[in-house]
Specification:
It is built from five helices and 21 strands. Among the domains are: 48 residues, no CATH class; 60 residues, OB fold (Dihydrolipoamide Acetyltransferase, E2P) (Beta Barrel), CATH 2.40.50; 87 residues; 75 residues, Efflux pump adaptor protein, beta barrel domain (Elongation Factor Tu (Ef-tu), domain 3, Beta Barrel). The protein has a six-stranded antiparallel beta barrel with strand order 2-11-14-13-12-15. Strands 1, 16, 17, 18 and 21 form a five-stranded antiparallel beta sheet that branches. Strands 3-10-8-5 form a four-stranded antiparallel beta sheet, with no helix packed on it. β16 and β17 form a beta hairpin. It is α+β, with helices and mostly antiparallel strands. Helix content is 32%, strand content 35%.
C-alpha cells in the first residue's frame, strides 16, 4: 500500500499498525459486523495527526463550490444502427460456412457457399445457346446483304423495262417477267429482314437467360452486405438454405446508437441534431452522441418517449447492449466537489482526510453524484476546508 514505505529508516509510528491492519484485511472481512466495526474504529483512533500537506506523494485540495449543470439521467442501451439478417435468395444445400460469431466482415466478403452445380450446368448451356444465336444473327445479316444487293440490281432492270414498255419497245410478256422478278426479290429481302429480327430476338433471349443464371450463380455465394460483425450463425454445412430463412445475423459494431427513454415533460429540451453526453458505467467513460430520431409516440404507461442518438465512430470498447446514461441539462447549481480519489471507502463508511493547522483528521462524509473525476459532497465538509489524498487515489 502507498502508506507503507520500503525505506525502513523513514517509517513513522503509525506504520506498524497499518501493516498489521492491511495484512489482516482478509480476516476482517470474515468477521461479524460488530467486530469489524470495532477494529475499524480502533484503527481510526490510532492514526496520528502528523500528515503534512507537503508530504511527498500527497495532494491537498481546498474545498469549494463549483457551478455544475444539473442534469436528468435518462437510462438507455447501446444498439447497432443496423443489424441485418442474412438469408439466401435460392433454395440450395449449404456447402461451406466461412464465418463464426465474433468475426469481423467487410463489404463483399464471402460468408456462405451453396451448391452451385445446377446453375453452372445451366449457365454453360445458356452460353452455348447465346453463342449459337449470335452466329445465326451473323448468317442472317450476311444473307440479307446478298438479297439486298440482288434487289438493287434487279430494281434497275425493272425500271429500264418499265421505260421500254411505256414506249412499246418490248412486249408485255417481257415486262411482266421483269416485274415478277423484281417483286420476288423485294419479298426475299423483307423475309431476310424478318430472319435478322428473329435471330436477334433469340440472341437477346439467350443473353437474358445467361444473365439470369449468372445472377443465380452469384446467389450461391452469400457475401457480406457491408462492414460489420457476425453475432449469430444459424446454419451449418449440409443444411438446406431457402429464401427467407435466416442464415447469419450481423451487427454494425462501428456504427452504434443510443436508445433512451426520457419523460414527456422534457421533450422540449431535446431536438434533432442536438449533441448530448452519455456515460457508460461499465467503461467509466463519457462519450458524445447526436440525436437523430425522436419517436413521435408517448409510452402511455411510462409517460416517456424513445430518443435515438448516433454515437461517434471508432469506439472499439463499446458493445451493443451496454447500459448507458444520457444526461439532459436542466439548469445550473452550486455544489461542493472534491476529487473522487480523495474519498475512501471502509465498508459502508465514506471518509476523507482533512488537513487543519498542519495536522490531519479523518472525517466521515456523505457523497452524491459523480462529475467525471470529481464527486459531490452532501455533508461532512465545508467550503474552505482542505482535504489531502494520495496522488493515485490509493488508501
Amino acid at each position: 500500500m502507498h502508506f507503507v514505505s520500503t525505506n525502513l529508516t523513514k517509517w513513522k509510528p503509525m506504520q506498524p499498525v497499518l501493516i498489521l491492519f492491511f495484512k489482516s484485511r482478509a480476516v476482517i472481512f470474515r468477521m461479524k459486523l460488530p467486530e469489524m466495526m470495532f477494529i475499524v474504529l480502533l484503527w481510526l483512533a490510532f492514526i496520528p495527526a502528523s500528515l503534512k500537506a507537503d508530504d511527498q506523494g500527497y495532494l491537498v485540495f481546498e474545498v469549494q463550490t463549483k457551478q455544475v449543470v444539473n442534469c436528468y439521467e435518462a437510462v438507455g442501451t447501446i444498439r447497432p444502427r443496423e443489424d441485418p439478417a442474412v438469408s439466401s435468395q435460392v433454395q440450395e444445400e449449404v456447402i461451406e460456412v466461412l464465418v463464426n460469431p465474433g468475426d469481423e466482415v467487410h463489404p463483399g466478403e464471402l460468408m456462405v457457399r451453396l451448391d452451385n452445380r445446377k446453375y453452372k450446368s445451366r449457365l454453360n448451356q445458356a452460353m452455348e445457346q447465346f453463342q449459337a444465336a449470335g452466329a445465326a444473327v451473323k448468317r442472317a445479316e450476311q444473307q440479307s446483304a446478298k438479297v439486298k444487293a440482288f434487289l438493287n440490281e434487279i430494281s434497275q432492270d425493272y425500271e429500264r423495262y418499265q421505260y421500254l414498255h411505256s414506249r412499246d419497245v418490248i412486249s408485255r410478256q417481257e415486262y411482266e417477267r421483269a416485274a415478277s422478278a423484281y417483286y420476288q426479290a423485294a419479298a426475299d429481302f423483307e423475309q431476310s429482314l424478318m430472319a435478322i429480327q428473329e435471330a436477334n430476338f433469340n440472341k437477346v433471349a439467350a443473353q437474358e437467360k445467361t444473365a439470369e443464371l449468372k445472377m443465380f450463380l452469384e446467389y450461391t455465394e452469400i457475401r457480406s452486405p457491408g462492414r460489420g460483425q457476425v453475432v449469430q450463425r444459424l446454419v451449418h454445412p449440409g443444411d438446406m438454405a431457402s429464401p427467407g430463412k435466416v442464415l447469419l445475423i450481423l451487427q454494425s459494431r462501428h456504427m452504434l446508437r443510443v436508445e433512451a427513454q426520457i419523460p414527456e415533460r422534457l421533450i422540449s429540451r431535446v431536438t434533432i441534431g442536438e449533441e448530448f453526453e452519455i456515460w457508460i458505467d461499465s467503461l467509466q467513460k463519457t462519450f458524445k452522441a447526436r440525436v437523430t430520431e425522436i419517436v413521435p409516440q408517448v409510452d402511455s404507461g411510462a409517460r416517456s418517449l424513445l430518443i435515438k442518438l448516433d454515437m461517434e465512430t471508432g469506439h472499439k470498447e463499446v458493445y451493443p447492449g451496454m447500459f448507458v446514461r444520457m444526461f439532459v441539462p436542466l439548469g445550473y447549481e452550486e455544489v461542493i466537489l472534491v476529487p473522487a480519489s480523495a474519498v475512501h471507502y471502509i465498508g459502508q463508511l465514506q471518509t476523507v482526510t482533512v488537513l487543519e493547522n498542519g495536522e490531519t483528521d479523518i472525517r466521515h462524509v456523505r457523497t452524491g453524484r459523480k462529475f467525471q473525476e470529481y464527486i459531490e459532497i452532501l455533508s461532512g465538509l465545508s467550503v474552505g476546508e482542505k482535504v489531502t489524498f494520495v496522488k493515485d487515489g490509493s488508501f
